[in-house]
Write a structure and sequence with these properties.
Blueprint: H1 10-19, H2 21-32, E1 36-40, E2 43-48, H3 51-59, E3 65-67, H4 70-77, H5 87-97, H6 107-122, E4 129-131, H7 132-148, H8 157-169, H9 173-177, H10 190-214, H11 220-226, H12 237-267, H13 270-281, H14 289-293, H15 296-308, E5 317-319, E6 323-325, E7 328-330, E8 335-338, H16 340-343, H17 384-401, E9 402-406, E10 414-417, E11 420-423, E12 428-433
Parallel strand pairs: 2-8
Antiparallel strand pairs: 1-2, 3-5, 4-12, 5-8, 6-7, 9-12, 10-11
Bound molecules: protoporphyrin IX containing FE.
Length: 450
């Protein structure tokens, strides 16, 4: 039997679940207890914010689960993606990919991330108003193209960026959520346009895979090309292309959003901004990216941002077998989900949870069932170390070089964009190049891109 939950019509409950999890999840928990069941149009979802139940879900044998929402992401990422694989093939794929994303590897990407940040911000006119989310998206795509795909200056990264963006723009929620619309219809349907862009991206990826096969670099694609499965096999080109598309989908928007939330939160808390600027300025006026990544207060600011503004609000798993979750015997076919919104706002773990307070991460660490911005268990985010490293470097370079002021006095509302939570206004802000005490402008942007 499923735990109780709202009995409103499915279409309304689904809307509430998608549009306003921050409002409805706490309300439903108060009314029905934890866990509660949300009867949504694409399945019954059992949601919890209790660390003991989150532990049960994350620690369960991966074979009892199937990935949720495969029909939605499948056309984009393909059947060879970690998103769509399950069971043993999924475990095997992650094992091959993980070393390229290991924390120790991140040093290789520090300079690339700093250069992408500097050049991205340098395109914005000094003193003008800009949507920071747009700038962060361009930067995070540049980081993926260079650090993950291994695209170099002589290959005209702008062409790559445009091809990828045109594929992302060709995605239409209608055919993602209603798979029967996945038809060409004589080449006129939105799905046909998507397939044309998809083909263009694949041609580009194939060429890049061959380029890196012949001439390996420090990038993640080169690492995946060199890696072996346990049976000594290697990834095929089709498999690699699926994973490269997956890494764009997983890492582009998420990183840009986390950066936008971070800058908004910092600027709305002057005491945090002062402390953070003091720490960054302590590294001089052209801070080394690796040194930036080691700053403790900056690290705490990024962690607190991901607690207070989780980019994904659920970590969904489809049950292939029944599961005992606390007192509830859940049937196969139900979906279980730890909720970041509930866990991160638990006052027993995070006192005054609404308060943005990076200090709570300075002298305390939290368990993986209390703090889960990157999900957990057998599907925990592959790019967690990469994303946190990028967040710190981009934020560090921004604050080191610019004064930033927000255009709106009102904090943005979180709104759902595909599956992520975005600031509704994209964080409009003014960036002004800082003048140092010496009267010199801040250092020139870094040039070398690896
Ligand atoms: C702040 C930025 C990011 C956040 C908040 C985030 C969060 C998440 C979450 C919540 C999941 C699902 C985990 C689960 O179901 O338990 C996930 C999965 C994943 N993420 Fe991230 N992510 C971020 C950035 C990235 C980046 C930069 C990459 C790679 C370049 C990446 C690659 C992946 C992959 C491949 C998966 C699928 C793992 C699997 O199904 O086995 N993510 N991420």
């Amino acid at each position: 039997m499923l735990p109780p939950g709202p009995r409103t019509p499915k279409i309304l409950t689904t809307y509430q679940l998608l549009a306003q999890p921050h409002r409805y999840f706490p309300l439903w928990r108060e009314r029905y207890g934890d866990p509660f069941t949300v009867r949504a149009i694409n399945g019954d979802v059992v949601i919890t914010g209790r660390p003991d139940l989150i532990e049960t879900i994350f620690r369960a044998d991966h074979r009892i689960y199937a990935p949720f929402g495969v029909e939605a992401v499948g056309p984009l990422v393909g059947t060879g993606s970690v998103f769509t694989l399950e069971g043993e093939p999924h475990r095997r794929e992650r094992k091959l990919m993980m070393p390229a994303f290991h924390g120790a590897r991140m040093r290789a990407y520090a300079q690339t991330m700093a250069t992408a940040a500097d050049t991205g911000f340098a395109t914005l006119d000094d003193g003008g108003e800009h949507r920071l989310l747009d700038a962060m998206q361009a930067i995070s795509l540049e980081v993926i193209l260079r650090a993950v795909f291994g695209v170099s200056d002589d290959q005209n990264p702008q062409d790559y960026a445009e091809t990828i963006v045109s594929l992302i723009e060709a995605i239409h929620p209608a055919f993602l959520f209603m798979p029967f619309l996945q038809r060409r219809l004589g080449g006129l349907s939105p799905f046909a346009r998507f397939l044309d862009r998809f083909e263009e991206v694949n041609v580009m990826l194939d060429a890049q895979i061959e380029r890196r096969r012949k001439d390996p670099g420090e990038d993640i694609l080169s690492m995946m090309l060199a890696a072996r499965y346990e049976d000594d096999g290697q990834m095929s080109n089709a498999q690699l292309a699926d994973e490269l598309r997956t890494l764009v989908v997983a890492g582009h928007e998420t990183s840009a959003l986390s950066l936008s939330w971070a800058i908004d939160a910092v600027l709305r808390h002057p005491e945090v901004e002062t402390k953070l600027r003091d720490e960054i300025d302590g590294l001089g006026d052209d801070p080394d990216p690796e040194a930036i990544a080691k700053l403790p207060y900056l690290d705490a600011v990024c962690k607190e941002t991901l607690r207070r503004h989780p980019i994904l609000t659920e970590s969904l798993r489809l049950l292939k077998e029944p599961m005992q979750l606390g007192d509830d015997a859940l049937p196969a076919g139900a979906v279980v989900s730890p909720s970041m919104v509930l866990a991160h706002y638990d006052p027993a773990v995070f006192p005054e949870p609404e308060r943005f307070d990076p200090d709570r991460f300075l002298d305390k660490s939290y368990g993986p069932f209390e703090y889960l911005p990157f999900g957990g268990g057998h599907r925990r985010c592959v790019g967690a170390a990469f994303a946190q490293f990028e967040m710190k470097i981009v934020l560090g370079r921004l604050l080191s070089r610019y004064d930033v002021s927000l255009a709106s006095p009102v904090p943005p509302r979180p709104v759902r964009r595909n599956i992520t939570m975005a600031p509704h206004d994209g964080v409009p802000a003014r960036l002004t190049l800082r003048r140092r005490v010496s009267g010199r402008p801040a250092a020139e942007p870094m040039r070398s891109a690896s």
